[in-house]
Structure of Sulfate transport system ATP-binding protein:
Amino acid sequence: MNIDIQAITKRFGAYTALNSVDLRIGSGELVALLGPSGSGKTTLLRIIAGLETPDGGTVLFGGEDALQRHPRDRQVGFVFQHYALFRHMTVFDNVAFGLQVRPRSQRPAKSVIADRVNELLRLVQLDKLATRYPSQLSGGQRQRVALARALAIEPRVLLLDEPFGALDAKVRKELRRWLRHLHDAMGITSVFVTHDQEEALELADRVVVMSQGRIEQVGTPTEVYRQPATAFVYDFLGDANRIECRVEGGQVRLASQGQPLGGVSGQAGPAVVYVRPHDIELQPAGDDQATGTVRRVYEVGPLVRAEVDYAGTLLEVAVPADDRMPFRAGDRVRVVLRRGLVFPADRPDRPEPM
Ligand code: ATP
């Protein structure tokens, strides 16, 4: 079922947590709401769920006004960061809960509930642990119970708020893969909140990048990473070097010294260029002006990273470890920016590739 969010505004006192947000989520999509703390992700998710009422705007579920419906009647499954399982109930009863509390007229027969719960427990690979209590489970297992519980009511929409936030890196990765698999198998329209770019890029069909109660960009993981609409998106989606510069005669030049960094088609004026660490190349220093000084070289797993002082700007450089960085701290190097995005000061929303 598709979800249409139109001009949603939410205020808490004088503070505007969401500022006229528009978003269309297609049926069966897996969408990530990505942004820093306080950007409004959770508030938007809670409005979709009906746990929060907006001050303005509309939410449509399959073309119907969802705001008029009680949260209970929206058929939304919700998974929180902290499992929020019932401690005094077994895994089986936790999953069955949503069905068991339905009014008698809508409650399935006991055997139907049992079949459904067992099926879900098999799906989340917890069928062997059905009689355990939450305290007897690992964090990853509890979160899988929470998911099974959310799915038990056959939701039309699945909402997940930092579902793996409290888990360690390895379990997180495993559960991500598993959630994607589950989503593809069931095809439920799903929205999850995260502040982890890697999680959003790896898992989602589309990523909604939020900042200060607004949407900065909506796109596929490839689009938001490769064609960021704003400097914020560029910066938030990966390591970024920020270099103050000016555009002059088709060249990007360092603001401080006027060294040419690369060609660009934009108009003359001050600008900021963003460059990813792996888009910088270091070569043995020649006679040209584009030299920097290596400050530090260190290895992080598959990458060798270097910090290079380049005319007063500290650049982060990354190359695959098997290329071996033939430079050491103190070396003079020629800095080549292979690719970057130039944000003109007067038109920051119209970046130009360099
Ligand atoms: P996080 O990743 O930290 O959860 P978020 O992007 O999900 O952040 P929200 O929880 O949506 O952000 O909050 C957005 C803003 O609204 C924050 O500044 C927060 O302090 C404020 N806010 C949220 N709920 C309330 C509330 N009930 N009362 C007052 N302010 C609130």
Observations:
- The first helix runs from residue 41 to 49.
- The chain is about 25% helix and 35% strand.
- The chain has a mean pLDDT of 91.
- The domain at 3-235 is CATH 3.40.50.300 (Rossmann fold).
